[in-house]
Specification:
The structure is a single chain. The protein has a four-stranded antiparallel beta sheet, with helices on one face. The mean pLDDT is 95. It contains three helices and four strands; from the N terminus they run E-H-E-E-H-E-H. The protein is α+β, with helices and mostly antiparallel strands.
């Protein structure tokens, strides 16, 4: 499963929201990737997520494969669209 989502929070996917994102991704068995500009990283890796340098108003693609891929994508999209509770 794949889903594109726009990062809306002011600072983008900086340290705190990246940490929240990785923790949420880690709750699922599915393999989850984040793709930006053709580069994919493991969504369960804080270093990987931060290495993408995702700013505000950038579309990213979430890719999930596994038993709970639907639930994982729904939860992660909700988190991003909810601006990680920052605003």
């Amino acid at each position: 499963m794949e889903k594109e989502v726009l990062v809306l929070n002011k600072a983008g996917l900086h340290a705190r929201p990246a940490s929240v994102f990785v923790q949420e991704a880690g709750r699922y068995q599915a393999d989850i990737l984040i793709e930006k500009d053709g580069r994919s990283v493991n969504a369960k890796s804080i270093i990987g997520v931060l290495s993408l340098g995702i700013p505000q108003n950038v579309k990213i693609k979430l890719i999930a494969k596994g038993l709970d891929e639907n639930e994982a994508l729904e939860a992660l999209v909700r988190l991003i669209e909810g601006k990680f509770g920052e605003e």
